[in-house]
Each structure stands twice: as structure tokens, then as C-alpha cells.
Design a protein that fits this description.
Layout lengths: L3 E4 L7 H12 L4 E3 L6 E5 L3 H11 L8 E3 L15 H10 L4 E6 L14 E5 L4 H10 L3 E2 L14 H8 L5 E4 L10 E4 L6 E4 L5 H7 L4 E2 L28 E6 L2 H10 L5 E5 L11 E3 L6 H17 L4 E5 L7 H11 L4 E3 L1
Parallel strand pairs: 1-8, 2-8, 4-6, 5-9, 10-11, 12-15, 12-16, 13-14, 13-15
Antiparallel strand pairs: 2-3, 3-7, 4-7, 5-6, 9-10
């Protein structure tokens, strides 16, 4: 398959390329599009065959639900069977933006979109290219991350090309994604609401609207095997580079001592800015120690860089769990298949 590269950096001057992407989607094709979180692999949420092609292109398990992207509140009417008051409050507060709500789905949504569940995950991206594409199509777009299943999510068009070139119809080539990790996912189909996946909207922000929200056990710990997942990103191993990742929980001095004792060819350290000194192995940085937003923005690129540099085993520093640090920790612990060594 020839994958078209459609450059859209300006909505006016590049409108023909956006029209072409819309044409492909309306005809049942797959288009990778930028969002403010990560690049998504989009298809019409109403087209069951197109949705099945998303799973095939990514090599994604059929029991992993997709997120449906919309461009306006009116689209919700066809997607959900009920709209709780708290859902309206969340939409007013967090949309457009990196926030996903899980609600009871309508019959218009194919079961494959929701992995057979009676719910659907929905969000309204703030990225202007994504919003304009959805609006032009007049269709809600089902879109998981535009990468091979289980690998680090794509935050640039180059990442998408590396994973999916020749497997999908088109890639909208645009600016790198700002947030860098997937959206926050909250289910409002349960009482109390549950945080299923942390992201750009923090737990602290959620509590201002949902004071009774609880964190799902699978956010920080290994999920129960063979149990259906209500949200993307809840699988056992996810976001992982080809190299083996092991998290080391301890201070910098102990981290360096442990890693240096393992120094050999192929061993790398994933560290915060300025922590390279004192280590006898190559390093890759993933942001400032006290700035989780910068960590989130570069994490997936750092994980991909490990593979490019020939890493076989990576020992990673552990971020704090405050604010967006919870999202960074959630992604890292899955990349490490929950292997954490306490120093």
C-alpha cells in the first residue's frame, strides 16, 4: 500500500491536503492525524470494516477499546445512550483537551469500537488540525495511537511513518504533539467515577469537578489477567521499546551505584536532565526532575531513542506521582512490564 503523506501546517494554505484526508476517511480508509496528546490512527467510528482495519494495521488485540474523537458537543447525541450531569460538567471544564469520558454507548457505535463493552470512550481534541478534520468529515473518528501495538506511542509524524508506512492510507504530517502522553480517561459509567488512565488532565484537576473520583487499581499496579479493560492503556505491557526496561526506585546516588555495577555493552540509563554524570553507561534523558510536563512531552521519544542507540537493557529513574507525574509513571511502569527494583 502507498501511504500518502499529507502536509498540514496551515489550515488555510494546506486545506487541499485536509480535504484529501477527509475524502479517504469518508470512503472507509485509515488516516493518521495529529492531536495535542499523540498521533492517532483514525477511521469513521460508524464504519465497522474501517474500525477492524485499525486493529489489523496496528496488530492491536480486539479486546482493547478505542477512543472516539468528536469536534462538537452535538455529536454526543448519536454516541451515548445517557449523559449524566457530571459528564456535562466535565465537558464544559475539560473540552476541548486531553480528557476522555467513558459513558454508556448508543446502538450506533459498533461493538468493535468498544471491544464488546456497553460503554464508549469519547474525547474532543484541542489540536486544530484534528478538530478541523473531524468537522470537515462530519463524522466521529475512532482513533487509537498511530503506532504498532505495544510500542511507544507516536508524538511526531516521523514516528508514525516508522511504524505504519505502507500499512495505512495516509498520514497527516504536522507539528509534534504538545502533551506527549495520551489523554486522561475517566469512566462516568460507574459510581463513584474512576480514573482509568492518567494523562494531561491531572487527578488534582479532576477532583475539582469529581470530588469522589477513585483511582483504578490498574493505573499503578499489574491488571488482573483475562479481565476486560474499560479503557485503552490498561493492558499489562504497553508503550514498550524493543529494549528491556527496568525501573529503579531510589535516590540518584543509589541509582548510579546499581547501574554502574551492571555496566556492560547495551546497558543504558533513562535519567532526568543533568543526571548523566556519575554513570558509566550511555544515558538518555526524559526531562527535568521537577517538571513532569516536560517528562511527558519527551518520554515516548526517549523510549524510541533507546532502540535507535542499540540499547538492550535500560534502567530507568522513577518519576514522582504528583500532577502529570502520575501519567509518566503509569506509562513507564507498563513499558517496564511492572518490573520495579527498590534500592
Amino acid at each position: 500500500m502507498n501511504t500518502e503523506k499529507l502536509k498540514v501546517f496551515n489550515l488555510k494554505s494546506d486545506s487541499k491536503n485536509l480535504d484529501r484526508a477527509c475524502e479517504i476517511l469518508k470512503s472507509g480508509g485509515l488516516v493518521a492525524m495529529p492531536t495535542e496528546t499523540v498521533y492517532g490512527l483514525a477511521a469513521s467510528a460508524y464504519d465497522e470494516k474501517a474500525v477492524s482495519n485499525i486493529f489489523a494495521a496496528k496488530g492491536r488485540p480486539q479486546d482493547n477499546p478505542l477512543i472516539v474523537h468528536i469536534s462538537n458537543i452535538e455529536m454526543l447525541n448519536d454516541l451515548v445512550s445517557e449523559m449524566p450531569k457530571k459528564a456535562i460538567e466535565c465537558a464544559e471544564r475539560f473540552w476541548p483537551g486531553p480528557f476522555t469520558m467513558v459513558l454508556k454507548r448508543s446502538e450506533k457505535i459498533p461493538a468493535s469500537v468498544s471491544a464488546g463493552l456497553d460503554t464508549v470512550a469519547i474525547r474532543m481534541p484541542s489540536n486544530q488540525v484534528a478538530a478541523e478534520l473531524i468537522e470537515k468529515c462530519g463524522l466521529p473518528l475512532a482513533a487509537p495511537s498511530a503506532n504498532l501495538s505495544g510500542s511507544p506511542s507516536p508524538t511526531t509524524a516521523e514516528h508514525v511513518i516508522a511504524d505504519l508506512d505502507g500499512k495505512i492510507d495516509a498520514i497527516v504530517v504536522s507539528e509534534p504533539c504538545e502533551v506527549g502522553v495520551e489523554s486522561t480517561v475517566v469512566t462516568l459509567a460507574t459510581n463513584p467515577p474512576r480514573l482509568l488512565r492518567p494523562g494531561g488532565i491531572t487527578l488534582e484537576q479532576l477532583k475539582e469537578v469529581l470530588p469522589d473520583i477513585v483511582i483504578d487499581k490498574a493505573v499503578l499496579a499489574e491488571p488482573e489477567k483475562n479481565k476486560p479493560v474499560a479503557s485503552p492503556g490498561m493492558k499489562y505491557k504497553h508503550y514498550a521499546p524493543k529494549s528491556k526496561v527496568i525501573m529503579l526506585d531510589g535516590n540518584l546516588q543509589d541509582f548510579c551505584k546499581y547501574v554502574n555495577s551492571k555496566a556492560e555493552n547495551g546497558v543504558f540509563a533513562l535519567v532526568f536532565d543533568g543526571e548523566e554524570e556519575g554513570l558509566m553507561v550511555p544515558t538518555v534523558s526524559f526531562g527535568k526532575r521537577d517538571d513532569a510536563a516536560t517528562q511527558a512531552a519527551v518520554l515516548f521519544d526517549a523510549l524510541r531513542l533507546l532502540d535507535k542507540k542499540g540499547c538492550s537493557i535500560c534502567y530507568a529513574r522513577v518519576p514522582t506521582l504528583d500532577g502529570m507525574g502520575l501519567a509518566v509513571y503509569n506509562r513507564l511502569i507498563r513499558a517496564a512490564a511492572f518490573e520495579v527494583i527498590t534500592l
